[in-house]
Amino acid sequence: MSLLKVWGRVFTNVHEVLTHVTSMMPIVASAAFVDSIQTAFQGVARGCGWQKLGAYINLGSCYILGVPFSVVSSFVFHLKGQAERAVARVRNSGAKVEDQNVNVAS
């Protein structure tokens, strides 16, 4: 977290991109931290011969926690991605872009 405003500068100097990267870093850091804990527990379970338990935990974390969290985030809290703005920004920039049939629903 101490490099919150540095990570974006590794890739670009565009202010808007840096703002988005800075706003997403706490979420990415939290996900990486939680994932490291789960990875450690999976290693312990495998070492103890509890592979079946580890498989159930992986499935549960995806389908019982991950999918409902994604649905609530997108449909209840309306946390949309930035795809619409990104497509509009590229089209308005005047850059030559090959049409790849990108349709972004409004």
From TrEMBL:
GO cellular component labels: membrane
Domain of life: Eukaryota
A Gene Ontology molecular function term of the record: xenobiotic transmembrane transporter activity
Pfam families linked to this entry: MatE
Record family assignment: Belongs to the multi antimicrobial extrusion (MATE) (TC 2.A.66.1) family.
Name of the protein this chain belongs to: Uncharacterized protein
